[in-house]
Amino acid sequence: MSLDSLLFQAVNGLASASGLFLVAAGLSVIFGVTRIVNMAHGSFYMLGLYIAVTLAPLLGEHLGGAAGFWGGIAGATLAVALLGAAVERVLLRRLYNAPELYQLLATFALLLIINDAALFLWGPEDILGPRAPGLSGSVELLGRRLPQYDVFLALIGPVVLVGLHLLLTRTRFGRLIRAATQDREMVAALGINEALLFTAVFALGAGIAGFGGALQMAREPASLSLDLSVLGEAFVVVVVGGMGSIKGAYLAAVLVAEVKALCTALGVIEIAGYTFNMSWLTLVAEFLVMAVVLVLRPHGLFGRALAATKAGEAEPPLLPLDRRGRALVLAAILLFAAMPLIGMFFRYAPVLALDMVIAALFAASLHFVMGPGGMASFGHAAYFGLGAYGTAFAATQLGLSTPLAFATGIGTAAAGAALFGWFCVRLEGVYFTMLTLAFAQIVWSIVYQWEDVTGGSNGLFGVWPDWPFDSRAGLYLAALAVALGGLALLRRIVFAPFGLALRAGRDSRLRAEASGIPVARVRWLSFALAGTLCGAAGGLFAFAKGSISPEAISVGRSIDGLVMVLLGGVQSLMGPLLGAGAFTLLQDTVMRETDYWRALLGLVILVLVLLFPFGIAGGLRRVARLRRAGGAR
Amino acid sequence: MSAPSPVLAVRGIAKSYGGVRALDGVSFEIAAGELLALIGPNGAGKSTCFNIVNGQLRPDAGTVHILGRDVTGLPPRRIAGLGVGRTFQVAAVFPSMTALENVQMALIAARRGVFGFWHPARRIAREEALALLEQTGMGAQAERPAAALAYGDVKRLELAMALAGEPKLLLMDEPTAGMAAGERREMIALVRRLTRARGLAVLFTEHSMDVVFGHADRAIVLARGRLIADGPVDAVRRDPLVREVYLGGTRPGREARP
Amino acid sequence: MRPSNVLRRALLGAALTTSLLAIPALPARAAEPIRIGELNSYKAQPAFLDPYRKGMQLAVKQINEAGGVDGRPLELISRDDGGNPGDAIRVAEELVTREGADIIAGTFLSHVGLAVADFAKRRKVFFLAAEPLTDKLTWADGNRYTFRLRPSTYMQVAMLMPAAIGVKRKRWAIVYPNYEYGQSAAETFKTLLRAAQPDVEFVAEQATPLGKVDAGPVAQALADAKPDAVFNVLFGPDLAKFVREANTRGALEGTFVVSLLSGEPEYLDPLKDEAPVGWVVTGYPWYSITTPEHQAFLTAYVDAYGEPPRLGSIVGYTTIRSIAAGVAKAGGTDTEKLVDAFAGLEVDGPFGPFTYRASDHQATIGAFVGTLALRDGQGVMVAPVYVDGASVLPSDAEVRKLRPAAD
């Protein structure tokens, strides 16, 4: 390993950093002003690339290669910016009054729809675009060849950075953006057309992402997996830099890209007799960086504490069930308990019901930290996975009996949640969210690569429970009992002093501390408790499926949980249960109906979000209230 | 004012921000049953002083004793645990709970009952909470969500919460901020009544001079980080230095609010 | 799917459910269809699985037009497995319980294949894994109820070994996607090469995140290690990025490269005129296979879909052919009889005849090895040689040691 090669790799890293920066900058601008966690941001990037590789040859035929290439990039940028504006006007605008994070649900639906739309428009095969005319060669540097396009990319990042900085500091539009980033209420108070500002900001953010995607035309093919793979990195960069800080985003992009380039450059190394392949770390480098930065600097490199946003209306007080509610719940429990009998006629029903029961426990445990705790976790799947892997490992490798293996799984999840929670609960808002994500990704990458213990990317299988849980009915009833126990416990706690204190810490940390509530400890304990119950859900999952793989810990799984909670309604204790049921049923149904099931799922979620901006539970409550009002008249 | 052991004793506290002295050698005391106003023009160091007392800031020098105990640098939660109630400039309550639950929560916390996982909180300290709400004139609103209360009522609710757990000292940051003139007088009269009855020491900051001079027992005046006056309100009102700071230094008028 | 189709499906489903409910124990009539429950990661891997599905449908159509198997038509019930084992197991349960599938088949991703194989063992259902490559499926975790069609990772690597050994290079570098497939391909390669050439040195090993290769730094790191030969396991978008960067940087100039799967049209075609000339690859050169079996398949496929087949098409087509042959040999769809019939089953496919080995349930279907070149602005494999799977598989005796878990 020569110094030259390290230096050269550092220059390589700068080109990658520009790409990262461009996606992240748009995300940061959008989040800063609108506080929307835009899940569709990676989709904008992907669309930028797809549109560019389509336009470039078309334009190239008429105008020549160079005009085609650059025209393609310009066209793609413009098209994606327009799409961003349209998304804001048509969709998100309707959701600004919904509780926080409902926009996340909507943009998640959008992500699903855009991916299928791209499949429909461009087909499944990757499309490799043309090289950049005039920049397709390389320059000599340190005795190596550096692609000219990489030099161009390394420069474009700082150029955009300076451009954005000028836009933000020298123009009225920019000053409005900065004002809105710091204090949204003030902008409204100043009589500025907030609607127009939001649309413009969304178009700007989407446009930058589209531009970033289009620029990759010369480096990578347009493919359908880009949206999600880019999204995670963009989040990391924004958070590491500090939400809303463009300069921070650039530095973070450089940091992440350089760490990766370094891991790649070092290759296989030997430490104290052990050989270790550093390139393995590239799988998780960005999340390691994020975890370290957030633990040391809770608001990222350049971030400040976010002014608390007015989170719409405060949620209504939680009430114990009335008589009718209790009757309904009892009926639902009886129905689920009777599932093995129903299964004699509809053999698939118990299979689906088991998935629902597990999803319900998963979603309810997430809801506990997210609803009463006010801490939206993006990494809840980590505890699901730890529970599942703990159980699977104990059952298959240690040969423990089913109950003991299950207990091992729960213990593993509890330990993980207690450990990670200790760091996470110190952070607020979106930083908390992102640190949970970072930890989940770290767990995922360990599980993914620790072949001997976790089975690596293939996972563990042969995790079947022993008697009396080895029959479908036996396992189902046991799972139902565990889930009901967990749900009852959570409910009990929410109404107990601890639950009240948890809500108090969410409502007003200031007041809670002044009243003598140890908010950090309450949060930590609630996080650990939620993780423990989530681990139970994971353990059940391992037994139900007979196998477990790293997907159980993936971001996708965490997002599923969020979608369930939000879909059902975050402001109600029944919400996550309804959401889990609805989501499981929906997914099962749409997957069978059409090849474009993701788009269909996205559409259904979108419709539900627009109809019930407070989730299904919120919608039902409103219907009930209207009916009561009607009856009284 | 010659109580042998003051409820609150602040001695020589100082705090700088990047070389700027926000607070410089400030000392004062409060005795039980006393209503002490902390006043001064904007930027005088009122907030810094107040936040050092309540634990949100750690002083560079000096000590804070509450009931004879050194609490310098303890976090707000620990100070609350020593029997100190607080209200905020912008009233802070728990909007997703009913007024009653708010006070119950405060009572549960004061009794260190936060880590109860089983018995419904609804049935804990209900009578005491209702009594506190009655005393602050909120009895009729007990079952309403805090989010639905008028701002004046939120301030009363906050007072009820601050009084939960029988505090010996009450720290009130602008107790009448954001209220209409009539409401202000009512509020401060309520505070006066309740604290008298309970023998409570109160430290409050205030912008409204008629509130200060109409109701406080004593006032201390800060200017540019230094204590320039400490005495009964009438004496302070006549103090030439105070008059200069208020009339000469900043905008004239009884309302020093910017 | 057109609405009328959905409606028909729904009615059919309803009718089926009703009939199952009403008379669960009705003896099979003569023309009772053979229900193949097929699940695959259509959404996650569309590039490979679109042609795969077309191949399957072509085979079903041909077989049914020829009167089915023993007079029973084939009925294909296809599902998306969600690309993860959790969903896949539920889908498999659904296929077995609700749809009454006699046989399950499919899967692409290794971990999904392994999970479904385990499910098959547990529920005693016959499972023909079409595409997962992992060696574990037939060896370490092989079981009685699972068979696999496609050549495994080990087989694909072994097919490239003659070329890798033949060039007699000393300094090798390896680049692979960082998951089980890439890892085991790299391990197998190292083991086999060391065995044949003990003085070989592995000078660099790059494990890149799947789908997210940092191509520039990776190509550079390989070049900096100054290898005289490279073994590549990257595929898909990773491959395209890697090839382009390596070209621009001249990172692999004068370096001999052997590469897994890169000759498969799914991965080769997107590279267009940038296909890396001179690489020795495994793949499917449909344009230069002249055997009559393949010619017949090619004609039928192009007639049906108006486009050339991909490797996925071959896999899909042969999967259905295999099942038909197995059911015919077993004389029905009884699971245990099917398992016995598949052991040693001979099947005629577009690549010629092959066998499902009794010892490890692996099909001996082979793959083509050739060198990449450019023709009309498109990468092609020249001088492709068909390597029979049987020629690279370990002997039955060795396999028995590799298969501890099976029956």
UniProtKB/TrEMBL annotation, chain A:
It comes from the Bacteria. This is ABC transporter permease. Belongs to the binding-protein-dependent transport system permease family. LivHM subfamily. The chain crosses the membrane at residues 6-31, 43-60, 66-92, 104-123, 151-168, 189-212, 278-296, 327-346, 352-369, 404-423, 430-450, 475-502, 522-543, 563-586, 598-620. InterPro entries: ABC_transp_permease, BCAA_transport_permease, LivM-like. PANTHER family: ABC TRANSPORTER ATP-BINDING PROTEIN, BRANCHED-CHAIN AMINO ACID TRANSPORT SYSTEM PERMEASE PROTEIN LIVH. It comes from Ancylobacter moscoviensis. Keywords: Amino-acid transport, Cell membrane, Membrane, Transmembrane, Transmembrane helix, Transport. Its main location: membrane. It is found in: Cell membrane. It is a multi-pass membrane protein.
UniProtKB/TrEMBL annotation, chain B:
SMART domains: AAA. The keyword Translocase does not apply. PROSITE patterns: ABC_TRANSPORTER_2. Residues 8-249 form the ABC transporter domain. It comes from the Bacteria. The keyword Transport applies. One of its GO terms (molecular function) is ATP binding. This is ABC transporter ATP-binding protein. InterPro entries: AAA+_ATPase, ABC_AA/LPS_Transport, ABC_transporter-like_ATP-bd, BCA_ABC_TP_C, P-loop_NTPase. Keywords: ATP-binding, Nucleotide-binding, Transport.
TrEMBL record, chain C:
The lineage of its organism: Bacteria, Pseudomonadati, Pseudomonadota, Alphaproteobacteria, Hyphomicrobiales. Keywords: Amino-acid transport, Signal, Transport. Residues 34-371 form the Leucine-binding protein domain. Transmembrane segments: none annotated. Belongs to the leucine-binding protein family. CDD domains: PBP1_As_SBP-like. Coiled coil: none annotated. Residues 1-30 form the signal peptide. This is ABC transporter substrate-binding protein.
